[in-house]
What does this fold into?
Amino acid sequence: MVKLVLGAEHDLALTNTLLDVLRELGAEEVFRNWGVAGSQEINTLQYKLDGTPLTVEAETYIGLSLSGDELAIQSIVDRVRDRKRG
It folds into this structure.
């Protein structure tokens, strides 16, 4: 399992692109959580993609991250980067 920080947690364009890619691949959202502790906020979304668990987190001072199976993560990140290039 790997965790990759994709960018800033407040980058809504990046977040929307990532979530669009996950939906297009058929990922199913299975859990959603939001919390605040002091000055930090964390949003957590958990997905299943072909039975493989994936976690998207947006955390203050950490960024927007995607964690899960290395091959799945790389495939998703490649699609996100392709979209960002336009």
